Structure formats: C-alpha cells, structure tokens
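tool_call: predict_structure(chain=1)
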Amino acid sequence: MAKEKLEVIKEANLSNNCPECFNQDLNLTFYQKHTYGSFFHKITGELSNKLVCNTCHSTIYPVTWTDDIERMFNYYQKTAIPAKKSSKPTLLFYSLILVLIALVAGAVYLFISGAFQF
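tool_result:
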C-alpha cells in the first residue's frame, strides 16, 4: 500500500488578527501530496492548506476568516508554486525489470543452444 505524505511547499507568517484569541501571530502553510509506493514515487497535483494561530494553537477554518485573512491567503496562494505532477520509478522497480530481462535472456539462450527440444 502506498504511503501518503504532505510536503510543505510554502509557509508564511501572517500579521492578521486571529478570530479566536485576537493575537497577531498566524501561520499559513501550503502542502502538496506525495505518494510513496513500492515501485513508484508520485507527486500529485493535489494541494491543501492550513492556517494556525501560534498563540492559541487553534486551526482557523475558512468559515471564520476575515476579509484581511482572505486577501492574504489569495496573495500567498498565488506565490505557492507546486512541483510538477510526476511519477518516478524506485530502485525496486528497476531491479525487478533487470531480473525479468535476465530470465528472458536465459530462456532464449537455453532455447537457442538446444537444451529444449520441441
């Protein structure tokens, strides 16, 4: 089963007021989802974000955002450039392909040398 991990692509400190405790210490983080499987490492185009107050340690959801927070979010969302969607094979994939090629080459050699007669 593939493991999923959220990689940080952009992190910003905001000086807007927290809707919960009214302090000016917010942290906005943008994440991109990466999946790690046995044969492939995939970078997906799926982005997510999280806004947390550093004082009261509460997650601030978009329902409670003020217009100022919304403007700052839109600005930083434009500056968060994700990595391209891609898929890279792992070492296990390459070794499996190499073993399969060796098995086919061995079977062809034995067939050509006359070890197998039909």
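agent: The first strand starts at residue 3 and ends at 14. Proceeding to next step.
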